[in-house]
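Slide 14.
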Amino acid sequence: MAIEKVRAFFRARGMEDRIREFDVSSATVELAAQAVGCEGARIGKTLSFVHEDGAVLIVCAGDAKIDNSKFKAQFHHKATMLTPEQVEAFTGHQIGGVCPFGITHPNTVTYLDISLQRFDTIYPAAGNAASAVRLNCDELAQLSNSVGWIDVCKGWQAPSL
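Slide 15: predicted structure.
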């Protein structure tokens, strides 16, 4: 079970107490925000895309959407989401619980979108569709083994005047 893998990952780092499991689904941003008790933007959603011979995971704020032109400029190809089967194969997690923790597939890389940097606390999933883990951006960067911060999202910035 993926949550147990994530729990072991955090236990090894002395952070297992950060994981929250719910009696209700947290499979969408809206449901996760209700379960956690925070605004939806603070949910760190992990989106998974086809990339070369593997997958690229992008963790972004709950109110952000992929900007296709920014994605193409960053990765040099169109943004194509993984199928549910590919998601599980490349991450070890099922849709609704996908997170960047404990990913061991050699062809899966993780990036963090700058849409998260406006928050002191964020809540990505923890391996299943009824979980979350409380982290700050520095902790997320370290624990996700991310390649780095990128800017590939839209819809989260305040409108310019």
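Speaker note: The longest strand covers residues 43-51.
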